[in-house]
Amino acid sequence: MSKINLLGCEISKLEQMMIERGQKKFRATQLYTWIYEKETLSFDDMSDISLRFREELNRDFTLSLPKIYKKQESKDGTIKLLLELEDGAKVETALMPYRYGNAICVSSQVGCNMACAFCASGLLKKQRNLETHEIVGQVYVMNQLLKEKGERVSHVVVMGTGEPFDNYENVLDFIRIINHPKAFAIGARHITVSTCGLVPGIMRYAHEGMQTNLAISLHAPNDEIRNTLMPISKAYPLDKLMEAVKYYEKEADRRVTFEYIMLKDVNDTIECARQLVKLIRGTKAYVNLIPYNPVDENSFRRSDEENVHRFFSYLMQHGITTTVRKEFGNDIDAACGQLRAKEQHESH
Ligand code: SF4
């Protein structure tokens, strides 16, 4: 039987496992303290646990992390890692140093089946879901790197490779672990899950009682454009998506953010801005405009700065809170999925 990686154990499940082994429930919190607060990855060093139980832990459990396969560091402090998992699969994770803290962008799957036309990650089909410990491991490894500078990960976005709601349970357990006060204690308001618009996932997430942020990759103001960019739109067209957003806003009592990648001559005209205002009127949503990072594999180009500004101003003038995403890592492979895609090309 293969060993269970404790980095993927959500606290209530860990408590249950301890009880089943004849241990007290508090063992779970004790283990969390060692693993996350004291950053110990060896059961042998857990000195307040009996030798006998440490032997049992060594026999049945592991605390292994993904390995750093490649590391890129930008002049602006952005760190991009290609991590190798136990089965040899590789995933990307990135750290962006904002003024307010260090935000990590984690992957939730190996590859992605959503096939968004502008995305380097979607070029490589989904191989499998990431296990919870493999998502937690991305934050753990980044924290180890930041420790040298006396810093820590303070914000998490599940926006790397993969569709989080296509790996729902593992992503939820990941959120519960990083949010736990004895683990990374990352505040719910500092955690964002980003979906390409899986309507059943949004409806389900509305009932999790999470104070986290939900971002929806919208990228188009109508089905016609969205169908060309995001195949998911055929399964869940915009009227269904907007219904789900309103449902989420009501049930979860949280606002969503619409992500909108600005693609030159595709979705960046004032007519698109006008349609967008009409589409999202009636929601409390924010819009985040994203300057596009072109990749070699497609012909999309980034919108001119002037167009982004005009689009932004139009939304603001029509009462929609809008931001333009700050850019990071322009001197490294900045686009999501680029590092892994390159690696695959090079190794074939
Ligand atoms: S943008 Fe996200 S959902 Fe779409 S293909 Fe890329 S990783 Fe998948």
What does this structure look like?
With 348 residues, the protein is of the alpha/beta class. The protein has two domains: 4-62, DNA polymerase, domain 1 (Orthogonal Bundle); 67-347, TIM Barrel. It contains twelve helices and 14 strands. A ten-stranded mixed sheet has the order 3-4-5-6-9-10-11-12-13-14. It has a two-stranded parallel sheet with strand order 1-2. A two-stranded antiparallel ribbon has the order 7-8. Helix 1 packs across helix 2 (26-37) and helix 10 runs parallel beside helix 11. The site of iron/sulfur cluster has 11 residues, from loops.
What brief labels describe this structure?
348 residues; alpha/beta; DNA polymerase, domain 1; TIM Barrel; 2 domains; ten-stranded mixed β-sheet; two-stranded parallel sheet; 19% strand; binds iron/sulfur cluster
- In the CATH scheme, the class of the largest domain would be Alpha Beta
How many beta strands in the DSSP annotation?
Answer: 14
Radius of gyration: 21 Å
End-to-end gap: 34 Å
Give the neighbour order of strands across the main sheet. Answer: 3-4-5-6-9-10-11-12-13-14
Number of domains: 2
What would you say about this model in short?
With 348 residues, this protein is of the alpha/beta class. It has helices spanning 11-20, 26-37, 51-60, 132-147, 168-179, 199-205, 223-229, 232-235, 238-252, 270-280, 305-317, 338-347, and strands at 4-5, 61-62, 67-73, 79-84, 90-98, 101-105, 109-110, 128-129, 155-158, 191-195, 213-217, 256-262, 286-291, 322-324. Strands 3-4-5-6-9-10-11-12-13-14 form a 10-stranded mixed sheet. The protein has a two-stranded parallel sheet with strand order 1-2.
